[in-house]
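User: Hey, quick favor. My workstation is busy. Could you predict this chain's structure for me?
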Amino acid sequence: MLTEHDCTIAPSTYYAHHKRLQAPSARTVRDAELKPLIREIFESNYRVYGARKVWRELHRQGHVVARCTVERLMRELGVTGAVRGKRIITTIPDSSVERAPDLLDRNFVAPAPNRCWVADFTHISTWSGVVYVAFVVDTFSRRIVGWSAATSKETRLVLDALDMALWQRDRDEQPHQRGELIHHSDAGSQGEFNWSSQHL
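Assistant: No problem, here it is.
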């Protein structure tokens, strides 16, 4: 048909296409057999099994298949297992501690440097464990003016970041008056931010 329109194609292309039309490949047939089994195993195990566990269950049932094949078919089916991981919570509000008032009223714009500092801390997962990092940001310049890192969540971590920020301010000889700097933080209880705000 294409040769009638002066389109030349390689004979191998024609025969490969013709063969695909005749019968499905062994891989296609095998995939069609495995997909319902994979779906059944996934559904019967509360939709939490990943490729490794589905692959092991297929082997237990006597179906020898490569793990990469199970991964590929699960992707085609659009199913993924539950990912386990320890979620680290860095902010736990303490109901027994009186919460400091929000002096900024969620307005994080400062008219000049060293008028408003926002503090928080987070965790970073590393190969050797979790590292907690506290930081203080000047809302005028959006610059980190103080930070501290430790392997545990303690008040000292937050205070070290605050001390570094105060040291930076004094070192740079920034003009400041007592009471014009607001130190804002979240409501977490680990840092005892109520105390650290009075530390200024």
